[in-house]
């Protein structure tokens, strides 16, 4: 038998007997003689002890059984069975134990999602690192063994793959830094309108070299509280994608609308858009539309995490006339 069960049982039982004794004593003082008191108390005490014992047994079981179930579920999770959830009967109670069970399940769900996400990311990362690395190894062996006149071309390939690896690792570091919260500093108020203006100016400079442009259609004034550089990287990623996909001669349009409690940033391009099934997928690491390997595939995953840190949301949808619209919805300070 468990210690908590025995302790609860004994406490209840002894308390009941003590209360019974006090009642009997008071009863005796009120007029009954000593003899009848002994007879009465012994008789009653016996009955009372048995009935009290049964009552206390059930109370102790009622209190300790859910704890045993919770303890079992915790042990399962500790052993790596992350899909374990507590018995549904616990969640249906209407007491603090039900709150504990629900919170336990929420914790288990979160841990399972985090661990599964990390495992998948690790698998994806290994896969993504492998391709440039094997191309680099092939180019290296060609430099060594191939004709001398092709050496320069192969060296260029090596440089390109090394740059790709560097970008990929840099993006991965950015992603894990956001998740872990290191190097973030303390939140501060900053001018969101100014941030958007700066990103748009830089984007426009980049876009003009490719016969495209970036245009701010509307920009309300607003200040938000958070991490400026983090949010800048989110907006930059979205604007850069839009510049990459918008067709030649068109402009990426940016608008910043300010409501009572939220700021809504909208970035719209005139490119091919994204198929419906991929609209939410593109925010997962390394999810790219088919045959598109021009980027590392982490920009939107970084953007989503950066926006989530600010308790905001990011979404993508296709404009009715074509092109992708990415919206970032942020609560104001
Ligand atoms: N504006 C857009 N129009 C069409 N497709 C897009 C657009 N933005 C993103 N995508 C698709 O979503 C994928 C994921 O975008 P994301 O920014 O995460 O990665 P990336 O741009 O490929 O690489 P990175 O940003 O890490 O350099 C892209 O590869 C592309 O297939
Ligand atoms: Mg990108």
What labels would you give this structure?
8 helices, binds magnesium ion, two-stranded antiparallel sheet, binds adenosine-5'-triphosphate, alpha+beta, 3 domains, five-stranded mixed beta sheet, single chain
Secondary structure: elements and pairs:
Blueprint lengths: L2 H27 L4 H45 L9 H4 L4 H50 L5 H30 L7 E4 H17 L4 E7 L3 E4 L1 H18 L5 E8 L3 E7 L30 H11 L3 E6 L5 E8 L2
Parallel strand pairs: 2-4
Antiparallel strand pairs: 1-3, 4-5, 5-7, 6-7
Describe the structure.
There is one protein chain. By secondary structure, this protein is of the alpha+beta class. The protein folds into 3 domains: about 5-80, no CATH class; about 125-180; about 190-330, Histidine kinase-like ATPase, C-terminal domain (Heat Shock Protein 90, 2-Layer Sandwich), CATH 3.30.565.10. Helices cover about 60% and strands about 15% of the residues. It has 8 helices and 7 strands; from the N terminus they run αααααβαββαββαββ. The chain has helices at about 5-30, 35-80, 90, 95-145, 150-180, 190-210, 230-245, 300-310; strands at about 190, 215-220, 225, 250-260, 260-270, 315-320, 325-330. The protein has a 5-stranded mixed beta sheet with strand order 2-4-5-7-6. Strands 1-3 form a two-stranded antiparallel sheet. Strand 6 (about 315-320) and strand 7 (about 325-330) form a beta hairpin. Helix 2 (about 35-80) packs parallel to helix 4 (about 95-145), helix 4 (about 95-145) packs antiparallel against helix 5 and helix 7 (about 230-245) runs antiparallel to helix 8 (about 300-310). It is elongated. The relative contact order is 0.07. The model has no long low-confidence stretch (mean pLDDT about 90). Magnesium ion (MG) binds next to helix 7. Magnesium ion binds next to helix 7.
